[in-house]
Specification:
alpha/beta, Rossmann fold, six-stranded mixed sheet, 489 residues, 3 domains, 6 strands
Length: 489
Amino acid sequence: MQKNEMDLRLELLDSLLTTPHRKLEDVKALHELMLEQDSVFYGHLAAWYRGHGHVRDHREVFVAMLLSSQVGAHRDAGFVMLQELPPYQVARVVDFLKQHRGKLPRAVKTAVVRYLRAREANDERFDRAALRGRAAMKHLYATLRIKPGPRAQAVLFEDRPPVGSLAYQVKQLAKAKSAIEQAKAIATHRIPFPVAVGAIRALTPVVLVALLDAMTPQEVINHLATLKKRGAMDHPEVKALVTSKLEAAKKDDRVSAYKAKVAADAAGASDELREALDDVTEAQVLRSGARIRRPTALLVDKSSSMDSALEVGKRLAALLSGIAEAPLYVYAFDALPYEVRPESAGDRASLAAWEKAFAPFYASGTTSIGAPLAALRRRDLRVEQIVVVTDEQENTAPFFPAEYESYATMLGQKPDVVIVRLGQATSYLEKALKAKQATVDVLTFAGDYYALPNLVPFVTRPSRLDLLLEVLETPLPKRTDGHRSLLAA
């Protein structure tokens, strides 16, 4: 059966909830279909995702598709968006076009040439790009047969960086014999953490202080596990500097909300450090300005083998309660519903409070996804949207599709449903609800907690139509260099 235009748009929006994990080919077909069937919406969606999306893989696909589009305004937008990417992502866009689109339009080479020349024109900018993305930049020059400028030739291809260049300073850092010399070099030239760590065998407290001083809050979060391994948390002064960086992360627009939580897990953080990282996550979610203004239910599957659902559920409870201005009802369920309430005062309980509230529950029992919905109906609790964390398998009454129908009758309207699908999942629930003309979105969770904020646009808009209209109202970025793409012949 052919999909209608609305279904296709919503399916593409749903696909943005999922992280392809560097397998861009997994989302290529849907992007191509949308570009072919509704190029106007696709262009605006790419522009909207530029400001609201969290998954780098989708950003790359959007840029690649726009650059290879038949629409001139798309190519202009892709040109602008490519200039904003780091070198490794630009290289991935080029490789995606060659491998999965089977072509490399002239507009792509023009955009990459402009990208590289803009960096060559500023020594400091070029040095930092070359230091962080050396392999990617060499690949771009080589694969597109772009002649590097003298500095690029010396730094990237001849390994003889000019005196005073950042690459030259890294070589000097590797030769430095004392910790004071190393710290001075790092502080003076703000040598990036991954590069400095590779050049220095032993990180003394004085070197760690210099490194941390040069790092952004996001870099501290990204490299927390390495910092901990290298002894940063063993020295009070260094630990205090890490804590101050995490405090600054709460107000830094460049910090990704859920990367803080992922970092806590990766680093095996102490309770104190974990709490600080949780605070970063919560502060960033609140800073987004997104608010849930519709009564919402979060239903979390705790039946056998659903340990991952409980872990996702507690994180979503913290995420949603942090931005909820309308009632939020949280239930764990097996064959029975169990209301989950944090002990902390106020509506915006911390992640730690939700973890404590979920602590008594463990995965066991049979599954009735309809049980918590029945509890809402019997208590006359009215919600306009339902988020269900489940593998969609249900083997015990009351069954969700029938209970949904009863609940919708009580409400006089059909609540929207978002399924957070995980584990050995089926599509039973999605299909059953769509058969009842319910609005259903699906987030396929594959262990990537930093992707959970992708759910926010779906639960903060009054309706799916409002979200689609917001997308269509997002203007495409335009080139400001006086050039415009012409329609392809």
